[in-house]
Amino acid sequence: MAETATDRIVMEVARYRPGTDTEPVYQSYEVPVTREWAVLDGLNYIKDRLDGTLSFRWSCRMGICGSCGMTINGDPKLACATFLVDYLPGPVRVEPMRNFPVIRDLVVDISDFMTKLPKVKPWIIRDDEQPPDSEYLQTPTEMAEYKQFSMCINCMLCYSACPVYALEPAFLGPAAIALGQRYNLDSRDEGAADRADVLAAADGAWACTYVGECSTACPKGVDPAGAIQRYKLTAATHSVRDLVLPRGAR
């Protein structure tokens, strides 16, 4: 269907106000549609022209900051990269990301992720200390080894899609594990052993059942499910090696 300047679509937006609502309610708004308008544009239209009380997060509008993650017609997506024209004739339902406490309307609390992320030490760890004016060189091939896993924008869509995290909130989660693996694969890093206790714990990589929804939801093609399975293989190989080989031969 080709849209015209007069096309409009109904957006059903989840509303939740702490202290007022006992559970989310849905409020319908009619907004204009053009080929360029994303769901985020529709939400801003509502905020600016129809209902200034609506709360949601956004920043860059370019799929870089990851702040506008939401549930759109049942799927975890970035509101700035999901277009209203694709949902004509409508309606399009917009809800907060699943698996997170709702603060207000479409705003969720991601404190759990922010607490877990530092545990995987997502930074380069070295045993030696280079002078300030020196650098650790690596080849394009060495960079390609981890580049895919470095594209994470912390949008939390993978957590919203993850059935394991939904059932077991203690699970370290897709993005945190993928970012830990990103540094394990970095040729400049020497901190894999420092991350092992967290990544290889019962609520770390081994809790993943490889459903793969996290990789499907990822807007940047990071493939956290692949990172987790790759780490499992590495961890299992090291465990067998440590069991079979004498200490001096490891």
UniProtKB/TrEMBL annotation:
Q: Part of which pathway?
A: Carbohydrate metabolism; tricarboxylic acid cycle
How does the record classify its membrane topology?
A: Peripheral membrane protein
Q: Where does it sit, as one GO cellular component term?
A: plasma membrane
This entry's comment on the bound cofactor is: Binds 1 [4Fe-4S] cluster. Binds 1 [3Fe-4S] cluster.
Question: What enzyme class is recorded for this protein?
Answer: oxidoreductase
GO molecular function per UniProt: 2 iron, 2 sulfur cluster binding; 3 iron, 4 sulfur cluster binding; 4 iron, 4 sulfur cluster binding; electron transfer activity; metal ion binding; succinate dehydrogenase (quinone) activity
Q: What is its main location?
A: membrane
Location of this chain's protein in the cell: Cell membrane
The residues covered by the 2Fe-2S ferredoxin-type domain are 11-100
Entry keywords, A to Z: 2Fe-2S, 3Fe-4S, 4Fe-4S, Cell membrane, Electron transport, Iron, Iron-sulfur, Membrane, Metal-binding, Oxidoreductase, Transport, Tricarboxylic acid cycle
UniProt superkingdom: Bacteria
Q: Which family does it belong to?
A: Belongs to the succinate dehydrogenase/fumarate reductase iron-sulfur protein family.
On assembly, the entry states: Fumarate dehydrogenase forms part of an enzyme complex containing four subunits: a flavoprotein, an iron-sulfur, and two hydrophobic anchor proteins.
* Protein name as annotated: Fumarate reductase iron-sulfur subunit
> Lineage, please?
Bacteria, Bacillati, Actinomycetota, Actinomycetes, Mycobacteriales
